[in-house]
Amino acid sequence: MKKLLSTVLQFVMFLLVYAIGSLFPPFHIQRVVASTPTYTHIFVLDGLLIALALYILIVLGETLMKRRCQITWTTIAFVLAMVLGYVMKFGFITHEF
Predict the structure, then answer these.
(1) What is the number of alpha carbons within 13 Å of residue 78 lying toward its C-beta?
(2) CA distance to 5, 33, 67, 80, per residue, from 95 (Å)
(3) Torsional class of 89: left (φ above 0), alpha (ψ -120 to 50), beta (otherwise)
(4) What angle do CA 16, 20, 26 make, to 5 degrees?
(5) Which residues contact residue 9 at a Cβ distance below 8 angstroms, ignoring those fewer than 6 apart?
(6) Percentage of residues of the chain with pLDDT beyond 90
(7) pLDDT tens digit string along 62-75?
(8) pLDDT tens across 31-54, in order?
(9) Paired residues of 44 in beta bridges
(10) Cα separation of 52 and 55, whole Å?
(11) What is this structure's pTM?
């Protein structure tokens, strides 16, 4: 039960970090996905990179505390949050001219 609750809370945390980092990008790391004379699609990488850094910190902490079993659940929460964030189009911006 504790593992499930921890996984759900980590999923929510990763999703929120991804969303907030995409909406308020602190580093302004952007990639142009598609460009035409009428519009430009841009992907903001900040939310993804901040969530990845948070994931790495959590995994390092779990490794140092010798909770290797929990790393699998953290990875599942991270991957699901990134997939859902991508489906929800976090980080995508369209500029029309």
Answers:
(1) 19
(2) 40, 12, 45, 28
(3) left
(4) 140
(5) none
(6) 92
(7) 999 998 889 999 99
(8) 999 999 999 999 999 999 999 999
(9) 30
(10) 5
(11) 0.92
